[in-house]
Amino acid sequence: MRRSTAAAIGTLTGAALIVGVRLSVTPQAPIAAPPAVDLVDSTPSASASKKPGAASSAKPPSSKDSSSKDKADEEAQNGLKTGVFKGKGATNPYGTVQVSIKIQDGKITAADATYPTTGNSATINPNAVAKLKQETLRKQSADVAAVSGATYTSQSYQESLQAALDSAKA
Amino acid sequence: MRHVEQVMGTAVSIELADDRPAPELGALVEDVCAWLHEVDARFSTYRQDSEVSRMRRGLLTVADCSDDLRHVLSACADLWRDTDGYFDAYAGGALDPSGYVKGWSVEVASDRLLAAGCANHYINAGGDIRMRGLHPEGGPWRVGIRHPWEADKVSWVLAVSDGAVATSGTYERGDHVLNPRTGQPARGLRSVTVVGPSLALADAYATAALAMGEPGLNWLAKLSTDGYESAVVTDDGRAFSSANLPAAV
């Protein structure tokens, strides 16, 4: 039974890593999700695709839920014990991600992950990301060795500044 | 020594700045050109007998293909992930890794020049440049970024010694970059330039940002942490650059 729970958590750790990486390219996503141990969201199956934003609705840790008195009787045939289980923290380049799942009647009814709020996670904090700065579009004839531009064809090369440079130095 | 080679559907300008006998430099230029023609023959989607075309027709599997093609496919898969799907070698339906192959082949050519003792050179493949070392007159290479409306003007001048400058834009070949999410031509950005260590990646990043449209501005800003700086001009003529763009003084 431990095995199946561990396997489920392992799978979810992978899913959480994907969510964690996606976070790095989703400026709107909240970074500081509270430690999600017990999850109120209850879906019929594992909702690994749950949006990071929904994590903010997760309740703080509560021992009550994982130790309901008839817990022992609820161990379903597939060996998944009712309760809330935390995965081992997995460290990726952005910090440590920890997943948790809730099991009820032998089914995973909720899954979530905590995201890093310190250390390397600064790189995924949208507020810490430098924006490109706006400036005036300049138009200059400068002394350059080469010109970068949208890929020209062999024909349009003939009219390019690079062609002029090439023929001047040839 | 300077040379211009017509290959891969574009013009490739090569300058070798090392002070070596002309025959030696000439032989190095020949090696570079031979490699670029080999890449064209093996990876072009316009040639029916290329490895890529044979893979498209199902005549070549990943298990049987060359190490080079396997590298290209793997790099395209990594880029698909790293660009949130906006760099997509399958954007047009069938496999077309051209957006990676050109930059990669120039990167390889530059590596080979360095290995042959030519530490000062640049290769400009149709507007995407890999350079190393110093300009013949000393100092870093000065690279202009073409003004997106006036072909004979530049909008930025960069000073780069070792690195790559790649630009993707809509002003040369029209709407050739598709937004893979919509299947429609990319809109919003007219010119995206990425400067960084690898031409293969800089080129792919520039193409991906162009496909993203204006949201690409924020995406590009995040590349700074990996050493890739950027300069962008929007369709309506606004200009943006990242803080550490190596602008020449």
Topology:
The complex is a heterodimer of chains A (about 170) and B (about 250).
Chain A: H1 2-23, H2 63-66, E1 83-86, E2 90-92, E3 95-104, E4 107-114, E5 133-135, E6 146-148, H3 154-157, H4 161-169
Antiparallel strand pairs in A: 1-3, 2-3, 3-4
Chain B: E1 2-7, E2 10-16, H1 22-43, H2 51-56, H3 67-82, H4 98-115, E3 121-125, E4 128-132, E5 141-146, E6 154-160, E7 163-169, E8 189-196, H5 199-212, H6 216-222, E9 229-234, E10 239-241
Antiparallel strand pairs in B: 1-2, 2-3, 3-4, 4-7, 5-6, 7-8, 8-9, 9-10
Short description:
Chain A has 170 residues and is α+β, with helices and mostly antiparallel strands. Helices cover 23% and strands 18% of the residues of chain A. In chain B, helix 1 (22-43) packs antiparallel against helix 4 (98-115), helix 4 runs antiparallel to helix 5 and helix 5 (199-212) runs antiparallel to helix 6.
Describe, in plain words, how this protein is organized in 3D.
The complex is a heterodimer of chains A (170) and B (249). Chain A is built from four helices and six strands. Chain A has 170 residues and is α+β, with helices and mostly antiparallel strands. Chain A has a domain of 104 residues: Alpha-Beta Complex (Sufe protein. Chain: A), CATH 3.90.1010. In chain A, strands 1, 2, 3 and 4 form a four-stranded antiparallel beta sheet that branches. About 39% of the residues of chain A have low confidence. Chain B is built from six helices and ten strands, in the order ββααααββββββααββ. At the A-B interface, strand 5, strand 6, helix 3 and helix 4 of A face strand 1, strand 2, strand 4, strand 5 and strand 6 of B. Strand 6 of chain A pairs parallel with strand 5 of chain B.
